[in-house]
Write a structure and sequence with these properties.
binds zinc ion, six-stranded mixed β-sheet, about 280 residues, mainly beta, nine-stranded antiparallel β-sheet
């Protein structure tokens, strides 16, 4: 995987400022990708903050500097995407740095489906329920836990050679565009164990109209992973789970045509490809 090192324009021009280095991996980010930003040369930097097109970046101490995950929403506008950083250098002076990453458009498959109206049009009750459940998820995703709970690389949620498929696909049902598929699907037999893809706290164990039995994990600092259509959930809300520990089993609850795991991830409201989390080159 290639890495881009940025020439950082730092306000102030002494040696301390010149030593700041920012790298972002991978070098080309696509819609739905997760990039990993590492900053070195900022000293102890007690007040590190930054943003990417107005969205805050959340930094954690990493190696001898700081790092942040950058989530690129699946419908993010392609092109140059500016970031900025602010920190306090070793002498206590406020510093700023700025740069840009390039977001590339990604070709998502388009699925055209013709379904009986009864399968597409919800009853008023079901529609109210589905809307309330979507709102509950949005409220959760807006909650940014203060502490990074995840450590090291992320792992696949099912032990299978199957690839996670269908992230971002545009669904056109009976000629009407629907919201893009914001997760990736693993097909696996019912009862297959589902494991936590990273360390985190169980934020939700619920039965939703579309998602069926669903577990949401809060990995801290605004990162969530979701596991849907479960046959069973083996964890309770509030529990801290380790990466790779069993949280439930594959099923076909909710709106599902057969047993599969719908796996999704959100990073501070960016709908990211959960598969991209597996590629984050984090060491600890
Ligand atoms: Zn799905």
């Amino acid at each position: 995987m290639s890495v881009v090192a940025f020439l950082v324009v730092v306000v102030g021009s002494d040696a301390a400022a010149a030593a700041v280095k920012v790298t972002v991996t991978p070098s080309a980010v696509r819609q739905g990708d997760v990039a990993f930003m590492v900053i070195t040369g900022v000293g102890a930097a007690p007040e590190m903050d930054g943003s990417l097109t107005g969205r805050p970046l959340v930094f954690f101490p990493y190696a001898d500097g700081y790092a942040a995950l950058i989530g690129i929403d699946l419908e993010a506008r392609p092109g140059k995407t500016p970031w900025r950083l602010g920190f306090v250098d070793g002498t206590g002076a406020p510093r700023k740095a700025a740069g840009a990453i390039t977001v590339k458009a990604r070709k998502f498959p388009v699925q055209r489906l013709s379904l009986p109206r009864s399968m597409v049009d919800l009853s008023p009750d079901d529609e109210r329920r589905a809307n309330a459940e979507a709102a509950r998820l949005r409220t959760l995703f807006d909650t940014i836990g203060p502490e990074r709970l995840w450590r090291g690389r992320f792992t696949k949620p099912v032990a299978s050679d199957a690839k996670a498929e269908g992230f971002g696909s545009r669904r056109i049902i009976n000629g009407k565009p629907r919201s893009p598929h914001s997760g990736a699907d693993f097909s696996a037999p019912a009862g297959t164990s589902v494991v936590a893809s990273g360390r985190g706290r169980v934020a939700l164990v619920v039965e939703f109209f579309f998602g069926g039995r669903l577990v949401a994990l809060d990995h801290g600092e605004g990162l969530y992973t979701l596991y849907m259509h479960l046959e069973r959930a083996d964890v309770a809300e509030g529990a801290l789970v380790e990466r790779g520990s069993i949280i439930g089993a594959v099923g076909s609850t909710g709106r599902a045509t057969g047993p599969h795991l719908h796996w999704a991830a959100q990073l501070r409201r960016a709908r990211i490809d959960p598969d991209a989390l597996l590629k984050v080159p984090v060491r600890d």
